[in-house]
Fold each of these.
Amino acid sequence: MITKIVAFIVLNLVVTLVTASYLESGGVKKFINTLIEYVTSEDFDQENPDQKTNLRPIIGIVAKPAINKSPYTTFIMAAYSKYAQSSGARVVPIPYDLSDEEIQFRMEGINGLILPGGADWLMEKNNTFTKYTSKVKLMIDHAKRMNDEGIYFPVLGICLGFEQLILFEEPVYEIFGEFDSRDFPTSLKFEVDAKSTKMFQNIDVSQVKDKNLTYHHHFRGFNVSLFTDTPSIKEAYRITSTSSDRIGQKFVSSVEHYNYPFYGLQFHPEKPSYIWIKDKNIPHSPEAIKFSQDLIINFVKECRKNFNAFESRKIENKLMIENAFLNLTLTTSQDIYLF
Ligand SMILES: *[C@@H]1O[C@H](CO)[C@@H](O)[C@H](O)[C@H]1NC(C)=O
Ligand SMILES: *[C@@H]1O[C@H](CO)[C@@H](O)[C@H](O)[C@H]1NC(C)=O
Ligand SMILES: *[C@@H]1O[C@H](CO)[C@@H](O)[C@H](O)[C@H]1NC(C)=O
Ligand SMILES: *[C@@H]1O[C@H](CO)[C@@H](O)[C@H](O)[C@H]1NC(C)=O
């Protein structure tokens, strides 16, 4: 505010002192116009008077490799962006094939990140990360750095995104097991008191323990005993819940990082409200919708603790996901944004 008042005074002085002939010269005009633009620009600070709750959070969502969608190279299922938007966040896509500099620029303007699910390969045969996963690792390394520097930066990994978070602690492919859990709604078994977690702390989890409200769609998963037998992973992530597949094999269903606001869900919380493909067992009951909504409200609440911002509304608007091409496919992806 003070800088605005100073600018206003300077502007008045300049207008008074400069004679008409000077005004004709382009340089002075440009200077005055810049001052006018600055004084009349919207002030972000006024919208966050207490600086404790970000009232205009922006969440980044990683866009994954798109196959046979030329000229587009990456995509985001709209269900993920609608899910984040339903809790009062706006969405900026982060196509994985952007330059490292552009990824860094976007990371520093957003208030949290979602790593979506999908069926991509995470590792090459020689045990190195694929290009997609290497780029996501860059983002997570950056998120860790921000947190280390005192900038609270939350990350939510869903299904494949969750698997990426774990493998970034140590790329031990062996801890994956094969599970019968495709197109599979099931319940959560809490391994810790839900009230002691960040994602579930204020949620009534009684329903989700007994009813099949969470939708799983994966054939790989984390074998609980191998997960906890791997020190680097066990020390980084706390298992908050597990589930069992169709034949009773137990896998990790949700985790929280001990030191960072990083959350992983093996199930798909974005599907109950937004995916309506026929012949799928996605739960659409009011209880399933409520549980999904509670989760994203909690995650966006975490993102509201972050105050990263882009320089101007103009830049924000240019980056918003709504600028992208929305393609209504009739597949399980339903509508997708292409980049
Ligand atoms: C691993 O395999 C990928 C894909 O085949 C290749 O691009 C990469 O150079 C390989 N890395 C090493 C260290 O061999
Ligand atoms: C999990 O790992 C244990 C220990 O190696 C093994 O006995 C069990 O079969 C594995 N389960 C699955 C589903 O991979
Ligand atoms: C949940 O699914 C399991 C099969 O995985 C089934 O045995 C059980 O009856 C279901 N529970 C409810 C409440 O529908
Ligand atoms: C959009 O989706 C439709 C239906 O799946 C498809 O035929 C069309 O080619 C898509 N457009 C693009 C640009 O991918």
Amino acid sequence: MASSDLVLYHIPKTRSTRPLWLYYELEDIYLRSRSDFPKLRLHKLEMSSFRGGGDGADKPESLLAINPNGKVPAFADGSGDDVTMFESCAIFCYLLRHYDFDSALADLKSKVGHDKND
Ligand SMILES: N[C@@H](CCC(=O)N[C@@H](CS)C(=O)NCC(=O)O)C(=O)O
């Protein structure tokens, strides 16, 4: 994984759509103007095959390494400290805090007092 890559495990029409939608919004705003805007490595899974094996048998080991519950979304950010997360709303806030550089969509940075190192 390149150091600036984000990773998202996603199944269409599930909660993983929340962070995926936000990533695309941020990409639309920042891809051309910010050279440090990260690429997304999207792992798109299908619910039918995902559930087939039961007890995580059909779930990729790399997904289970991020989320032992085997649910999506599962997210990783390889920039700086290696961050892994698996709650859609937490990932959503993380993306806004770290990659909505100009607070175009929300101003989480000033409201919660966090910066990129928090
Ligand atoms: N509270 C979690 C819910 C995660 C969740 O339940 N994900 C479902 C899809 S919406 C899932 O992965 N289901 C497949 C399974 O449990 O095997 C979040 O919002 O991220």
